[in-house]
Amino acid sequence: MKKYLYQFMVTLFAMLSFALSSCSSDDDEILSSDDIVGTWKWDSFGTDATEDFFGEQYIQFNTNGQYIEVDIDGYGSEGEVDVIRGQWKRSGNTITISGNGIPTTTTEISNLTDTDLTLITLGVPMSYKRVDDSAIDSYIN
């Protein structure tokens, strides 16, 4: 049941984020694409920690525009792993992700530091912590 709820939530966010548009003032700091390049581990959804409910999620933004998402439902060797690949493009504080089998989605960057990333999708903040790129190697090789 948890797996189906998780898949429903991911699909819902992807579909509804089509309607998300980003507005920014001239005073907003526009960070470079290089700042977001790397691997990020999902830390919280809104105000709740994700791991207890959703398992784990990693996203990786590569310099060549490749996007990799690793979703792990459950823990350890019993967890089901889904790997999603696509492309990403950044314009100001907006990221657009597209690829085979995934709907084109747009999300807003509300916070980006060397260690923290917060994306706003449908008004809900999703926080990530930077991790070493090798954190997902065993899932994508």
Overview of the molecule:
- By secondary structure, the chain is α+β, with helices and mostly antiparallel strands.
- The protein has one domain (2-140): Lipocalin, CATH 2.40.128.280.
- It is built from 3 helices and 9 strands, in the order αββαβββββββα.
- It has an 8-stranded antiparallel barrel with strand order 1-3-4-5-6-7-8-9.
- The longest helix is centred in the N-terminal third of the chain and has 15 residues, at 2-16.
Q: DSSP helix count? A: 3
The description of the largest β-sheet is: 8 strands, antiparallel, barrel
Query: Oligomeric status of the shown chains?
Result: single chain
CATH top-level class: Mainly Beta
Note the beta-strand portion: over 45%
Number of E-type strands:
9
CATH architecture: Beta Barrel
Helical amount: 10-25%
CATH topology: Lipocalin
| SSE class | alpha+beta
